[in-house]
Amino acid sequence: MGSKTLGDTMDQLDAFLRLATLPILEREPAFNRRFIEVNEHIVELVKAGDRQAASDYLQEQLMKQAEAIIEMIEAINNGTA
Questions:
Q1: Average per-residue pLDDT in the chain?
Q2: Around Cβ 29, how many Cβ atoms within 10 Å?
């Protein structure tokens, strides 16, 4: 990523997210596939030079994904998943 500190931080965040979503992946192995299209769109916006749109879209999608993950984890914890 260019910055060792940023790279290390992103590695830690990636590890945390993997642990946090492990219960979901055990029940829905294809869970992460839903984000491929989102990631591709972000890359397209960045390549087009529209960094603000990419940032806005990323923030919107992160909020949606966070809500979905929280709902899934709550369902798992409540035994309804």
A1: 89
A2: 9
